[in-house]
From TrEMBL:
The gene is prmC. This is Release factor glutamine methyltransferase. It is an enzyme of class 2 (transferase). One of its GO terms (molecular function) is peptide chain release factor N(5)-glutamine methyltransferase activity. GO terms for biological process: methylation. Methylates the class 1 translation termination release factors RF1/PrfA and RF2/PrfB on the glutamine residue of the universally conserved GGQ motif. Residues 15-74 form the Release factor glutamine methyltransferase N-terminal domain.
Length: 275
């Protein structure tokens, strides 16, 4: 039996009785009714029409079926900016804001930056928004992802060069002051791929269909040919991959190799400097 909402129910009552957590209830109510969070308060006594009740019920049912909230409403905030999302791209997560912060600290004035596997464009757009002096290039193998990334750059008023590319293929012999990437790093056998939001996200952006290190190896191996002397390579990776990624960086001759922890205290980003 599908979920239903009674026409004539008030907004205030629905906030308390919808079967999701309080935040998700608010998000779906705002989206279904086209009102702001303030509107939920100021219009708490307002009752839903039959069309509104049907629209809200359909959204709640999609969430009950497991679909991520970000895909249902088509948007997710990242680094204080709104990003359009769809099942063609990963949903930007707060953990990835760490690599943006690290990139902004290490990108020289007027420097050139490369974001590999950009997806929604979250890393590239956030960096370009904070550093108007920088020249940012972003790559992805998926044209569908690039279409969304371009829309996000335009919506946030930034200039980013987007190229369709299988890793370094489209940049020729170009060199950058900094390369950042949040590549597919979940091993193909990881049970998390069949759980929660990951079930709905693009598999090719989550897993390398191997041991979880294949994409990371490819980026580390190719990066020295595309970094300026002293340039940084920053890589987001899995919760248990920091030591392996540091070893890859050291073996390729990077210096100042280290890992940084995200807010929950997990080593989430590793990087090194080309000497």
């Amino acid at each position: 039996m599908s979920f239903s909402v009674d026409a004539g129910a008030s907004i205030g009552r629905l906030q308390a009785t919808l079967p999701l957590d309080a935040l998700e209830n608010r998000i779906l109510l705002c989206h279904a009714l086209g009102i702001s969070r303030v509107g939920l308060i100021t219009q708490s006594e307002r009752v839903l029409s039959a069309d509104e009740a049907q629209r809200l019920a359909a959204l709640v049912q999609r969430r009950l079926d497991g679909e991520p909230i970000a895909y249902i409403v088509g948007e997710r905030e990242f680094f204080g900016l709104p990003f359009k999302v769809s099942p063609a791209v990963l949903i930007p997560r707060p953990d990835t804001e760490l690599i943006v912060e690290l990139a902004l600290e290490r990108l020289p004035q007027g420097g050139r930056m490369l974001d590999m596997g950009t997806g929604s464009g979250a890393i590239a757009v956030a960096c370009a928004h904070s550093r108007r002096d920088a020249s940012v290039t972003a790559l992805d193998v998926s044209e569908d992802a690039l279409e969304i990334a371009r829309a996000n750059a335009a919506a946030n008023g930034v200039q980013v060069r987007f190229l369709r590319s299988d890793w370094f293929g489209a940049v020729g012999d170009e060199r950058f002051a900094l390369i950042a990437s949040n590549p597919p790093y979940i091993a193909s056998h990881d049970e998390h791929l069949s759980q929660g939001d990951l079930r709905f996200e693009p598999a090719g952006a989550l897993t390398d269909h191997a041991d979880g290190l294949a994409a990371l190896r490819a980026i580390v191996d190719g990066a020295p040919a595309h970094l300026l002397p002293g340039g940084w390579l920053l890589l987001e990776h899995g919760y248990d991959q920091a030591a392996a990624v540091r070893a890859l960086l050291a073996a390729r001759g990077f210096t100042e190799v280290q890992s940084w922890r995200d807010l929950p205290g997990i080593e989430r980003v590793s990087g090194g400097r080309l000497s």
